[in-house]
Design brief:
alpha+beta; two-stranded antiparallel sheet; 38% helix; rod-shaped; At4g02000-like; CCHC-type domain-containing protein
């Protein structure tokens, strides 16, 4: 364990060795349980120096990770990666809906911003409406159309039975 601790320090804290590694029955592989921070990127290899006097003597040893849980950096939960994150998908969908609503509101603003010609047409309709004489038969088609074109305010009923 004393040999593995400095080798594995860039990865994390070495906790314990595999039984085959401890008994030295398998010389080609060493299995060590290491405590790692899953939010950080894991190194793929470590430097094994052969001599303390000459640090250039050595080789890069490839590291294989087993049973590391998948971790989502977006929602900070284990069990899935960012590409499969349900929270991120939901957030992106709400963002798209808000953008669409903002675009629609922007288009409605452009439509609702009447140029002076439209204002003059409205004033002309009002003049025609006031000059016209009704015989007491009730509202005409033009009255209904003009009423539909105006803004309608919704009011809340205080009593459902009204």
């Amino acid at each position: 364990m004393d040999i593995f601790t400095p080798l594995l320090s860039p990865i994390g804290k070495a906790l314990y060795l595999d039984s085959a590694t401890m008994q030295k029955t398998r010389g080609s592989v060493a299995k060590v349980r290491v405590q790692i921070d899953i939010t950080k990127e894991r190194p793929q290899h470590v430097w094994m120096g052969f001599s303390e006097k000459d640090p250039t003597l050595g080789k890069w040893q490839i590291i294989e990770f087993e049973d590391v849980p998948s971790y989502c950096l977006y929602c900070k939960h284990q069990g899935h990666i960012i590409g499969e994150c349900p929270v991120k998908g939901r957030d992106e969908e709400t963002k798209r809906k808000k953008e669409l609503e903002a675009n629609k509101k922007g288009q409605e603003k452009l439509i609702n911003q009447t140029p002076k010609d439209n204002v003059q047409q409205q004033q002309g309709k009002e003049k025609i409406h006031s000059n016209r004489q009704t015989k007491g038969k009730g509202p005409t088609e033009e009255d209904v159309i003009l009423k539909e074109e105006q803004w309608q305010i919704q009011t809340r009923r205080k009593n459902k039975n009204q």
